[in-house]
UniProtKB/TrEMBL annotation:
Protein name per Swiss-Prot or TrEMBL: Uncharacterized protein LOC109705740
Domain of life: Eukaryota
Annotated gene: LOC109705740
Biased composition (Low complexity): 1-13, 22-40
Domain Retrotransposon gag: from-to ranges: 119-216
């Protein structure tokens, strides 16, 4: 009976989970006579220093750097006393003159494209400054900052009267290269477009108008390429013009060499004129002089006049 009870107890013990490890403290282990194994303590969590309330974020710091750079560019620009535009009683030539002066200063100072409008608008005063404030107010905020090309178009559109615009449009339709270079023709062509931007629909239309105004000799070559952009037409026209100039230069050099070949250096003695031309047929004249001596008798006459050979063969005398 005892054996059956022991076997049943052993079977019940095998189905149970193993006992959990002892979690007795070192003091309890010592009291029980068990040697305690030291356990390494966990390190405390690293403390994160709090962010100072006065420190700038990367975006704010970058914005501050950009502001300082723009301010330095403005101070440098103002040192050269740029012209002021007031926008009162304005003639078209006054707008063009102010734009040209500002662009010249930009070129001298190597001004970056993103700074041009910022610097130029610091030269607007009175009515012109009020106009610029309206432009900024009415411009959608989702658009990128205005660049110099767009600013010029806005200036010309505002200060050119309708009558002036119509005259420029008519002048644009009749514009031809004529005797000017391609670069000079392009300068006037682009100037009218800047003053009256709506005179062309897009870049393709601009290229077509420029092509029509080219000198016929250049036009015939460029139009064969069927170009679609203004830059391509302009560059090809320059290429043709350069090639034409090279051919013309070669022809002039050939003509000069021919003229030099026709001119003989003067000289001679005995008071003879240096303009005396050499005989055209020296061989014929030499033969004529030799023929005056008879080959039969040695006399100073022609063979046909020799008395010794009259009625006889000149060779065998028979």
């Amino acid at each position: 009976m005892e054996r059956q009870v022991a076997a049943a107890a052993a079977t019940a013990t095998e189905g149970r989970d193993p006992p959990a490890p002892s979690t007795s403290t070192p003091e309890a282990a010592e009291s029980e006579g068990i040697t305690a194994v030291p356990v390494a303590a966990r390190p405390p969590p690293a403390s994160v220093p709090p962010v100072a309330s006065g420190s700038a974020t990367p975006d704010v710091a970058a914005e501050k750097v950009e502001q300082e750079r723009a301010l330095a560019a403005l101070i440098k620009f103002k040192k050269f006393n740029p012209p002021i535009f007031e926008g009162e009683k304005v003639e078209p030539s006054m707008v063009e003159l102010w734009i040209d002066s500002i662009e010249t200063l930009f070129k001298d100072l190597y001004t970056s494209e993103k700074d041009k409008v910022y610097l130029a608008t610091h030269c607007l005063a009175k009515a012109a400054n009020m106009w610029w404030k309206r432009v900024k107010r009415d411009r959608p905020s989702v658009l990128p900052p205005m660049l110099w090309k767009e600013f010029k178009k806005a200036m010309f559109a505002n200060y050119f009267l309708d009558t002036v615009k119509r005259n420029l449009q008519e002048r644009f339709r009749k514009l031809r290269q004529g005797d000017r270079s391609v670069a000079n023709y392009k300068q006037e062509f682009s100037h009218i477009i800047n003053c009256v931007p709506k005179v062309v629909r897009d870049d393709r239309d601009r290229a077509d108008w420029f092509l029509r105004g080219l000198r016929p000799k250049i036009y015939r070559v460029v139009q064969l390429f069927k170009l679609t952009t203004f830059a391509e037409v302009f560059n090809r026209a320059l290429w043709v013009e350069h090639g034409d100039a090279h051919v013309r230069e070669e022809r002039e050099l050939i003509a000069e060499s021919r003229d030099k070949g026709k001119k003989r250096p003067g000289g001679g003695s005995g008071g003879q004129s240096s303009s005396k031309k050499p005989p055209k047929h020296p061989r014929m004249q030499s033969w004529s002089r030799e023929a005056q001596q008879c080959i039969i008798c040695g006399g100073g006459h022609r063979v046909t006049q020799s008395r010794q050979c009259q009625g006889k063969c000149y060779t065998c005398r028979q």
